[in-house]
Structure formats: C-alpha cells, structure tokens
Amino acid sequence: MSTDTATAAPTRRDPTAPWPILQIRGLGVTFGGFQALTDVDLDARQGEVHFLIGPNGAGKTTLVDIITGLTKPTTGSVRFDDVELTGHKEHRIVHLGVGRSFQAATVFEALTVAENLDIAASFRMGLRGLLRQARGRRPEVAEALEVTGLHDVADRPAGALAHGQKQWLEIGMLLTQKPRLLLLDEPVAGMSPDERTRTGDLVRYVAKDCTVLVVEHDMDFMRRFADRVTVLHEGKVLKADATVAEVQADPVVQEVYIGRAKDDRNSVSRAAAATDTTTEETA
Q1: From 63, 72, 94, 162, which residue has the greatest number of CB atoms within 10 Å?
Q2: For position 104, what pLDDT does the model report?
C-alpha cells in the first residue's frame, strides 16, 4: 500500500448499509450527587427501529435529553453520523438531522393541521426563502399529510384532533424537516389499540428513510415493531442491542422490568377490586 493511499481520507460509508448512525459510549450524568446514567453504551443502526425500554426512573428520557442537547452529560460521547453532539446547542443538533417528539404532542392548536406542517417545513428557510416560496401547499407538507393519514383533516384546527391524531401530526411536522434520526418518547401512551397499530405502521414506514429510537413502556408495541432493543435499569444498560426474542428470554430483564410491569398491573387490578368491594359494602 502506498503512503498516499494509507494517509488518504476515509471513504464515506454507504448510507444504505446497516452501520451505527448513532454511537453512544461511556455516557454518564450526575444531578446534584445523584447518578442518573452510568457508563451507557448504545448503537442505533441506519434504517432500524430501536426501542429503549426500562422501568420508570431508568434514565430513558434523560438519555434522549442528552442526545438532543437538552441535558449535558458529565462523561462520555454521543456521535451522530460521525459528528460529536455533546456541547452542541439544541437547534444545531436539529439542523444536523435529529428530530424529537415528546410524550405530550407539541402542536399549535389554533392553527390548522396543514399550517402546523407548513411552519415546521419552514425551519431551514431564511426570511428571503420564506418570501420567495410559491403560494399553495409545498410538496413536503403534502407528503406528510399522506404519510400520517391526516390529509382528510388538513384544514381542521389541530386543537380539534383526537389524541392519536395529534401525535401523528407532531411526527408529520418532524418528517417535513427530513430528519435522519427520529426520537419518539412514548408515542403510543394513551392510544387505543387501533391507534397503536397505526402508529407502529407509521414508525415502520418512517424507518425506510431514517433511524427511529423509541422510548416506550408498551411491551406489546415493542414486540410488534422493534428491530433491536436496549434495556435500561437504574441508569445502567441491562441488555444492549438485543432482539425482541433475546429480551423476552432474558431472566434478569424478566425480573426487573417485565415482571415489575406485571406486578404494577396486578396492583392496579387489586386496588380496583378493593374499591369495588368497599363500594358494595357501603351500599
């Protein structure tokens, strides 16, 4: 091998290959003496749906906050497409191609669905571009309406939408910005079974063009739509980059997470039964 060849800049990776577009190494964060995350490693590959699961307080949302620049880590590295994200402002990370939804959909309720999408699609445009844009519905807005299934309610105020529709609108707003990494924080919380299925289908469709990292508690949703899974517990990685089958078969995961979720559901059922009994005795 010649010297010139040996010292040449590396060839850019094929964007269609399953390489880790998001690489997290040794991530830790401390809040006032409380260690929220400890030595977290995570890889999310190009075009996959990667679920991040764990009990309440496991550090899932904190990890997403660090990726998006909302929280600064104490230690470790977060690299997106070979760019170090730690130290960047939130708006800069968005411009690099990282989009995020929240547990409560963030939409402009007084504006129509189409107007929400149009505003989101304008975030990369300067004032001159906004003034020059043609009247009418721009292609990325029309595409988002089609993908999310909201085309029939395009002229309806966002505040009049059902809960699931608001979540789809927020995802659509992110899609108009052409992200390459999409972070979804409990996207199916409070949804009906049909809405959860539609959301899962939407997530799978989105993953054709970008990587999707999903923070979720709904185990059935994970089983149906996850490619890979990482499990957090008490701020540490309990199971990394696993298949759904591997997660379900792991006895430690069963004990600290899946078993706990069942216990929580049983507690709710017992509390409801006790309430019913008390009501009958009172009557």
Answers
A1: 63
A2: 78
